[in-house]
Structure formats: structure tokens, C-alpha cells
Amino acid sequence: MTTQRTSGRRKQAFAAAAAVAALLTTAACGGGGSDDNNGSKTGAAGFDAANNKVAQASLVKKGGTLRFGGAQDADSWDTTRGYYGFMWDFARYYSRQLVTGKAEPGKAGAELTPDLATGLAKVTDDGKTYTYTLRDGITWEDGKAITSKDVKYGIERVWAQDVLSGGPTYLKDFLDPKGEYKGPYKDTSKDKLGLKAITTPDDKTIVFHLPKANSDFQEVLGLVSASPVRQDMDTKSKYSLKPFSSGPYKFESYSPGKSLTLVRNTNWKQSSDPVRKAYPDKITVQFFSDANQLDQRLLNGDLDLDINQTGMSPQGRTTALKEHKANLDNPISGYIRYAAFPQSVKPFDNVECRKAVILGADHVSLQTARGGPVAGGDIGTNMLPPSVPGAEGQKYDPYNIAGADKNGNVEKAKAALKACGKPNGFSTTIAVRNNKPVEVATAQSLQASLKKVGITAQIDQFDGSQTTGIIGSPENVKKKGYGIIIMGWGPDFPTVQGFGLPLWDSKYIAPSGNNNFALINDKTIDGLFDQYVTTLDDAGKTKLSTEINHKVMEGAYYLPFTFEKFINWRGDNLANVYTTDNYSGTYDFVNLGLKNPKK
Amino acid sequence: MTAPLHEPTAEAAPSAAEEAAAAAAGEKVVQGRSLGRIAWERLKRDKLALTGGIVVLVLIVIALLAPVITHLLGQDPDTFNEKLIDPLFGTPTGSLGGISGDHLLGVEPVNGRDILARILYGARVSLLVGFLSAVVAVVLGTVLGILAGFFGGWVDSLISRVMDGLLAFPQLLFTIALVSVMPNDMLGLSGSNVRVFVMILVIGFFGWPYIGRVVRGQTLSMREREYVEAARSLGAGRFYILFKELLPNLVAPIIVYTTMMIPTNILTEAALSFLGVGVKPPTSSWGQMLSSAIDYYESDPMYMVVPGVAIFITVLAFNLFGDGVRDALDPKASR
């Protein structure tokens, strides 16, 4: 999943200083929140009250306007093209899928539940055929019924990457790995439904035929890119400006980068939808160019929550932690922040030299640079995010990262250097994005602790918007001698495949836009992934996930920094709030309600 | 009256005599030396300029001795002290940005590096870039300005147009673009040294037209003077006239412009570092400290105040000194 908010907003920060000072006074006068975890005078539920559990569900009242704010607009509101995590979460307001994540907090939220379909898939033919039946009463915003052909057409749009780029392409990769279908816009068949891998025997039935089994296929159908789109309403590249709604809300107005308003879709029937509660009457989103400004509006109570869900910026966070702790949640984001060691750059072709970096690093210092245990996250000890089945969290710690050697172990690191044939250390370059101050801080921390073991590292800050061409190009990485690359990654869908396949499988090494930065080319890991996609039982999948993680850690390709956490703002007026692992620990937007609709 | 050579007389006598001598004879040796003496006497009386000069000297000494001073204080600019950081907020524990007996100006948020040590080391970068880029600009500006003014014709046209072009060039944007494409290792330099080298060259290169114009103007007005004519009629070569007759008379305006240029260069360096194209971490620089302080302006204002004050004092000192030098060297300037 792509990260959202950018952090290059220094000039605005100056301008905001005065405003923040003013805000501080207001906050102090308002009586503020209290530190206890049992709620505050202002009605906030308490610190972490909505983290993996439901906060104030009984206080919710129907109606009112739910007010979002954001520092960044979505990459696209077109269900086929959006890749930002918050867009997927928000898209459930105006789109439905065959299956989707349960409307439950925490881990349960990541489990699939039928949405447009009457039940989960009937899987036959050794996991190669998936059959769904659509439920009754499902309608578009103009009242017409949603048919299986609409679902097929919506999925076919993923093939039209030349027009509708940007979204995840798993559906295409799984259903048509050879790329034989050219997409609906180049389709020569009359009804534009020429994709052979999907058949629609009648308006209520849809059948998927996979050329090769993939045990995560249903997970992929739960992404918003599998939403139905009606052919006569498809405005191609303009669809993102006004998607045609199949959910409880529809677009009223949208001005990119400024504001977005959704109103009730009167043709949506609660009885046809087991997932969405649709409490508010209206949903507004206001976009700001400056994150500090957004944080102020949240603290003031002018807005209910942040649509980007990437956590507050340092200034607002400090104020919020000091004065409004009851309004905050501290969930695990599903992201892992890490350093990768490209094996093409000497001496990182030698496993012992990679180990030396892992052993020599001061992990507490790295955690502090990421923002500390609360705003940054727990020290990462392995490469599988805790929200993914098969993950062991800090229990699996092969290098004692969070244990005895959490401040780095100079002797062990020097021993590893000796084994690597570099007893006096070596010099290398750390590549880090220049638009993420936190990442630059981690690079400096790593630089300082590596110096103690004799590894001299130079920091090279590259243009953060050019990631695909700079660190995504193995040729460039080798040329520039980037031995250490600082990055982060979150799962597209919560499985080892949704997280690790692009990072660890040798097939995913690409000349540009590469994410397998460490250039892992390990037959064992590739084999485990192949085995994973054909394993259909959950226990077997979990076991293989664990095994893949262990193999990656044994290869010492990565130095994990943190299992990321973030500080998220929950407005006083919000009710029925909970975080879900389906969207990386963010609030489940679709079931948020208000306590006082008139406010 | 036990002091026969009292100050007023000592000062008045040579200057009066000198002015008379300059007007009458125009002998170059006497003229050069006397000008310096007049200036020195004037400068000594200007308390503000003198203070500025002393501060500048102190700064230079501090920058040169930065490793010694930090060592004596038991600090190091690159050592992390996370124990002094509140893990919840990332800001230093204790009041005023963690000021204590060990850390006289506090510590940086997040990593707890000693701010005083980083300010001292930062002074090295600021002054180095400030001085050396001024040297580059002065050398280029003087040589090209004097050539343009003396030879005139197409040489003058060419150099003047180049100066016009450079003055219209978006220097800051160009520098940002240039620095981001610079290799990590160059001419045997690596890391921050590459950046410092590039900054010196670029700031100096874009600075020379300012001096070049002044030198050209002065040369134009002087090349027809009688002493130049006299030298020419005695058979002096072009380069003799250029460097022995004209250049000594240009020393005053050049010195003035140099002292005024250094603080501007220091500010440019700070701006570049602020924008992230200055020195590389962990090398410290005032501009870079300011830029990272922005994320903490509310929770740890001291972190922003310290480098800000350092830049302010340095630039102010140079400007005061520069003003004094200008007044001292230009007898016609009114106070």
C-alpha cells in the first residue's frame, strides 16, 4: 500500500506558528481532556478506547454531518485506480464488493464477509473456480439492480491500465497472468465482456476461472478494485470525479484537492447490506495544504477526524498527548519501517556483513528517531507485520533486536565483520527519501551507531517523489553504491502474499519500480510462495507465512526498525468508532456515527 | 605635558600631510600606505565597527578551535544522548531544551546531540563558505572588472553582458538543482566536503558581478587620470599599468565589498542548508539546525532560538564591521 501524507511543508509551518499559539490558548480555555482512560468531560471515550474495540457504540444517533479533514486528497476516487489505504476505506461509502472486510474491530475486521454476494465463494476445481450468487435488493444510485455483468465489467476495467492506471493489478495477475485480454475499451465483443476468465451464466451468478490456484484470490476480490461499475455510467478517466454509487452514499460535489461531499443514496436499502450502518446523513471532506492546519482544526473540534489516517504531525501530536489524551488512539498501522541491503552493492553480497549492520545498530535509538514507542511503534524484530496471519510479533527475534542487544552489540558486530573479511569495517551509502524528516532522522541514527563498529556510512537524500527511478532501479542502486536503503511497507491485503511477495520473491525484481530492494533471489523463498498460493487451508497458510518470515530473517536482508504505530485523532462527537486490521489499523469509516447529529 | 605625541596630533598631522602629498605628487607608495593609516585611525574611533570586528575575530577563533573547545567541554557534535529525550514527545527532558551543566545550550530533540558542540562546528561551515566564496568572487570580479574597464571596446561589452546575465540568473534555484545532481565523490572529496566545495564555487561565481561592476566603474574613471597617462608616456606596459598603477587604487572599494559580501554569503549558505541542499548529515550547519527545528517550534523553541541567534550575531557583526570599514576608507562619506 502506498503511503499518503507528504511531509515537505516547512514554509507553511512557519506561517502556522502564530495560529498554533492562538489555538493553544483556546484549548486551555476549553477545559481540555483529562489523562484518565475512562473518558473526559468533553465526552471523548479515553485513550486507546477505539483501538481494536468499539468505542461508544450505544451513543450513536442517526443523522447529522460527519466532517472529515485531510492533508492530502486521494490518488483517485475511481474504485479501479485508488491505491491509498484511506481511499479504500472511504470507498466503501459509495461502492460495494462481492465480499468485504467484516464490520468488526481489530483482527476480525480483516476477515471476509459477504457483501453483494449471498455467501463466501464456493471454491471448486482445486481452488481454481470461485462461484458467487448475488443477493436480492442490491441497487445502483438510480434504482436499477446491480447485476453480475456490472461486477464483471467493473473488474475488467483493471485490464485497461493504459487509461485507468494507478490501482492494484492483482486481479489481472491472478486471472490473466499472460495478459491475453486487452481490457474493456479495446474489447471487440459487443457487450464488452470479453474476459474469458469470468463468466456470468445469469444476472445473479458470477464464476471466476483461475488459470492457476491462488489461495488469496478471495482477499483480492475484497479490495475496492473489484467493485462493480455500470458500463453506461463509465466515464473512463473522468470516473474518479463522480463514481456511480452502489453503496449507501453518492457523490454530491467534488472539487479535487479542496472538498468532497457525499449525500445519502436514497435507493440503497439497509436490508440488502449486512455491513454498512450508514448513520450520518451527509459526509463532508475538507482538504488542507498544510497538516498543521488540519491538526488545529481537529483539536478545535471543527472536524471529526482525519481522512488520511496517517497519524498527527509532531506539533499537533504533542499538544494532543498533553491536553486531549482521551481523544487519541494508538493503533498498530501494519507498516514495517526498515532498512534493506541490496546484495548487488559490495560488501552486502556477504551475509556476515549484512548481519554486522543488524547487530551493530542501536535499535532503541532508531525507535526514538521514528517517534518513540507511542508515536513510532514497537521495535521491529522481524519482517512480518503483527496484523498478518502467521506473524509472531516481538516473540520472534533472531537477532535479539528488542532483547539483550537492543542498544547494539559492538562485539558481535565486529565478529560478524571479521567473518565477512572486513575486520576493520567498510564504508557505504545510506539512501533515504528527502521528504520524510523521520526517515532522515533514522538514517542519522543508523549512521551514528554504525560508526562505533567501524562502518562509515554516508547519507544520500534523494527526491522522495522519484522513488521508482532511484531506489526502484537496481542498476542505479548499484551505480550509486546504495548499500542501505531506508523504506517502509504495508500490506495491500493482510496476508504474507499481500505484504511480502513484491519484497521477497525473485520474480518481482524489476528494472524500474522494483520493491525487492535487497534483490533476494532465494529458491527456498520462491518455493514457499509457490506452495502458499496453492495451500487452501488457513492453518497451512499461517504455517507457511511464519516459515517465509523466518527464511527472510535468516538471510539478514533487512534491518527492521519498528512495527509502526501512529497517533490518531477521534473527535468528541464521534460514536461507534473502532480500528480495523482490514485497513492497516485505521478507523472503519463506513460505520462511524455521531452522538449529536445537530452539532 | 608629559606625552608629546598625544593622539589628536598624531592623527591629524599625518592625515593632513598625507592629503597634501597625494594631491601634489601622486606617488603610489606613499599614497597606498597613507590611505591604510587614515582608515585605521578612523576605524579605531568607530566603537560599533570595532565591536563588530572583535566579534568576527572571536567567531573565527571559535571556529578554528571548535574541536578543542568541544573536547574541553567533554562533548562531541555527533554523539547521541537518547537518555535526555522524553520518548513520548521526542523532546529533551528538563526545561529550556534540556539546558544543563553538561549541555550549556541544551540538546537536540529526538537524538540528544549537544547543541553547543553543533553550533561551534556549524560556525566552521558558515565561515568557511562565507570567506572562501567571497575570495572566489573577489578574485574573479577584480580581474574581470579591471579588464573590462581598462580595455573597453568588445572586451568590456562581453564582460558586462556576462555580468548582466549572471545578475539576472536565479542563483538559489540553480544551486538547488546543481547540488542534487552532484556525485557523492568528486575530485578526491566526499560527503559534506563535496557540498561545501560546490557551495563555495557557486556562491562565489554568482557573487563576482557585484564586485566586477564596481571595479569596472572605478577603472573607467581612473584610466584617464594623469598618473596613468604619466606612466604610459614613460613607456609602461599595459599590465604594469593595470596591476601597479590601477589595482592599488581599487583596494579600498574591494575591501568594502568583500566585508559586505561575507555576511550575505553566510546567509545564502544557511538558506541552502535550510532547504536541504547544504552539508550532509551528520555535519552540522546552522541553516540545517533551523530547518529541523521547525518541527519542534512549539514544544522545544530553544532549539530554534539557538541557531537563529548564532546566524543573527554573525551577520550583524560582519555588517557592523563592514559599515565601519566603508566609512573609514571613504573620506567623503558623511557620518
TrEMBL record, chain A:
Pfam families: SBP_bac_5. One of its GO terms (molecular function) is peptide transmembrane transporter activity. Keywords: Signal. The keyword Transit peptide does not apply. InterPro entries: Peptide/Ni-bd, SBP_5, SBP_5_dom. GO terms for biological process: peptide transport. This is Peptide ABC transporter substrate-binding protein. It comes from Streptomyces olivochromogenes.
TrEMBL record, chain B:
One of its GO terms (cellular component) is plasma membrane. It is a multi-pass membrane protein. Its main location: membrane. It is found in: Cell membrane. The chain crosses the membrane at residues 48-69, 127-150, 162-182, 194-215, 246-266, 302-322. InterPro entries: BP-dependent_transpt_permease, MetI-like, MetI-like_sf, OppC_N. Keywords: Cell membrane, Membrane, Transmembrane, Transmembrane helix, Transport. GO terms for biological process: transmembrane transport. It holds the Pfam family BPD_transp_1. Belongs to the binding-protein-dependent transport system permease family. This is Peptide ABC transporter permease. It comes from Streptomyces olivochromogenes.
